[in-house]
Design goal:
Length: 77
């Protein structure tokens, strides 16, 4: 199983973005999405250090809510 983490872009320097999720910051490669026109404050799904998909803020929130439920052992019902 692969897991992508939604993160918000805080800064961009070439093909590297500094991204944040839940207070944690990481440098993320934008190389695979270099033609996507990503900008600061956009949300992306990050997998093994690479941005692989642009998502909406709502999609990011929904994913984090699901991840939080999984970590708590809840079913969401």
């Amino acid at each position: 199983m692969c897991l992508g983490i939604p993160m918000q872009i805080r800064s961009i320097d070439g093909y590297t973005a500094n991204c944040e999720a839940k207070g944690v910051r990481r440098d993320v490669s934008l190389f695979m999405m270099q033609d996507a026109g990503l900008q600061v404050d956009d949300y992306v799904v990050v997998h093994v250090g690479y941005a692989i998909q642009k998502i909406t803020p709502q999609e990011a929130r929904t994913a984090w809510e699901l991840y939080d439920q999984m970590l708590e052992g809840g079913t969401g019902a």
